[in-house]
Amino acid sequence: NIIRHTPQANTPGATLSLSSSHKLYEEINAVVAEHIKYSGFTIDDGVWEAIHEEGEMKVYRREMEEDGMIVDPLKAVHCVKGITGHELCHYFWDVSVRMEWEGTLESTNTVEVVSDDTVITHQTHKRVWPTTQRDAVFWSHIRHIAGNDENSPDMWMVCNYSTDHDKAQPSKCVRVKMNVAMVCETMVTPRADGKPSTREDLTCRVQYAAYVNPGGWAPPSVLRAVYKREYPKFLKRFTQYVTNATADKPIMF
Ligand code: 16C
C-alpha cells in the first residue's frame, strides 16, 4: 500500500520556490524530468552489472568510457525501514549536515543560495593516491513530485548537477563533472487499529543514480576500486545517519 501525503508548503521542495526567471530554471527542470523518467526502481539486468549486494541494497554499474576517461554510470536501489523519502532527501540536500555523513569530503562551501529549494555548492574531496585531488561545483535541488495514481506515485528527489560559478574559481584540484539523483518513495502500512502511523509502519524505497566524469585521467583500476568501495559505504552510512537523526523526531511525510 502506498499512502500519499501532502507536505507542509513551507518546507524546502514542497512547492517549487525556484523562480522561472532564474537562468538555471530550464536546466533544473530538464534534469529533474530526465531523472523522473528513469526512476522505475527496477534495474535491467541485461544492461546493468551488479557490483555489490547487501541486504536490501543493490549497487550496479555500466562500464563506459568517454574520451579515454572512465565514466561508468552507477545505479543503486535500497529499501530502508522507519524513515520517509522526504526525510532522506531533506538530509541529502541539507549542506549543513553533509560533513556528518559524507566520507569523501575535505570541505564544502555554499557559494549561492538560489532559492528555498536550490543551492550552489563548491566542495573539495579527499585526495586518492596517486591521483590529483578532485573538486566539484554543482547546483543541488530538492523537489516533491505529488503523485496522482499508481503510474505517477508521490516522490521526493534531490539532483546534484555540475555547473560553473564565479565564487568557485579553478583551484589546484581537477574538477569532476557529476549528474547525481536520489529519488525516494514512501510506503506506509496502514495500522489495523486505525491509529496514526508510527516509524514501524514506514518503508522508504530509494533509487540513487550517479554519473561522474573524473575530469582528467586517473588510473582505471584505482578509479573503479574507489567507487566500488565508496558508493556502498555512502548508502549504508547515509541511510543509517538519517535513521539515527530522525528516530526521536515526528515523522516528516
Ligand atoms: O552523492 C553523494 N554525495 C553528494 C554530496 O557530496 C554529491 C557528490 C558526488 C560525488 C562526486 C564524486 C567526486 C569525486 C570524488 C573523489 C574520490 C574521493 C574518494 C575519497 C575516499 C576517501 O552528489 C555520495 C557520493 C558517494 C561516493 C562517490 C565516490 C565517487 C568516486 C568516483 C570516481 C571519481 C574520480 C576520482 C579519481 C580517483
Give an overview in words.
This protein has 253 residues and is an alpha+beta fold. Helix content is 21%, strand content 35%. Strands 1, 2, 5, 6, 7, 8, 9, 10, 11 and 12 form a ten-stranded mixed β-sheet that branches. A hairpin with a 2-residue loop joins strand 6 and strand 7 (118-125). It is globular and about 60 Å long. It starts with 24 loop residues before the first helix and ends in a 7-residue tail after the last helix. The structure holds N-((E,2S,3R)-1,3-dihydroxyoctadec-4-EN-2-yl)palmitamide. N-((E,2S,3R)-1,3-dihydroxyoctadec-4-EN-2-yl)palmitamide binds at residues 98, 102, 104, 123, 125-126, 128, 131, 134, 136, 160, 176, 178, 180, 212, 214, 218, 222-223, 226-227, 230-231, 234.
Supply database-style keywords.
alpha+beta, two-stranded antiparallel ribbon, 4 helices, globular, binds N-((E,2S,3R)-1,3-dihydroxyoctadec-4-EN-2-yl)palmitamide
